[in-house]
Fold each of these.
Amino acid sequence: MITIRKSNERGAANHGWLKSFHTFSFANYYDPEHIHFGNLRVINEDYIAAGQGFGKHPHSDMEIITYVISGALSHQDSMGNASTILPGELQIMSAGSGVFHSEFNHEKDRETHLLQIWILPKLKQIKPRYDQKSFTKDFEKNDFVLVVSASGRDGSIRINQDAEIFSAKFSAGKKFNFIIKPQRKIWLQMITGKIFLNDQILTNGDAAAIDNEKEITIIAKENSEFLLFDL
């Protein structure tokens, strides 16, 4: 079964410096039909104004992934990490027993566009952990790129959960068949572009919940970028 969640069905919040679209219930947005999908708890599409950001705040027992689409995001945390995340890079933080962090757009004249993703952890109260990696060259392959996995296989970043995340930047006309393993479910999150998922159309910000399917076919009708979560 494939269930489409259109971009305009998401929750939305405008704080002036931050515009955010919530795929699942988050902060003041509550939708009992969309609290989580398996272990996938949050997908927020954020637009952070120049010179603005999230001040220091705590997290625990959550796998937090940042995927920058455009602009740049500066990160600092209580583990001593300080870095800038750019498009083509992915950051993951296992909050574990507790961590404080801040994230700012230090650009002077452009907003930062990103996805922030939360996945429920397999093990709780672990030692907090941070990782960041560039996949820029991999994204040039016009194919699925494994960016997150439990084992860290194929150069992916390790996560504390039985979950895999694939990033895809497809050129127009690209076709791909994805085999779904037994007892697994898939969430596909569009970023930009237009694809056919089997016989259904997805565009910017749309998503699809895929359950009890053995295989899906994806055809890019134009240059497209999306994430696929194997849960």
Amino acid sequence: MRRLALAVALAILATVPLWVGSTYYVNIASQILFYAIFALAVNVLAGYAGLVSLGHAGLFGIAAYAAAKLLTAGYGHASVGAGALGVTLVAAAAFAVLALRGTGLGFVMITVALGQIVWGVAYRWISLTNGDNGI
């Protein structure tokens, strides 16, 4: 019964762009979904694993920049999603190698440092990110 309810909810969610009408509301709903997934990831990491990450937004930014660069290069949405996911997984694996060496406050400080490194690169790598003007 629970799987059926989940399948119905996902089917309704998939048809939202068809019956909403305005692209504005589809855009807002997409942003809400992205931030909900972001919050869910932080909740799983902190609540279940007991690891507080303050650098999560760095990975969110890497995924966003990868998706934006692939979209502006003319790739389709499915390949953009797969490409951004791949880039983010590689970055997350590199972060994990460094971050999982620390525990407790050390882990928190390492994740803060990694998040700040991503911010610094995004801010200063003008040819890739267009700096503080954004893509």
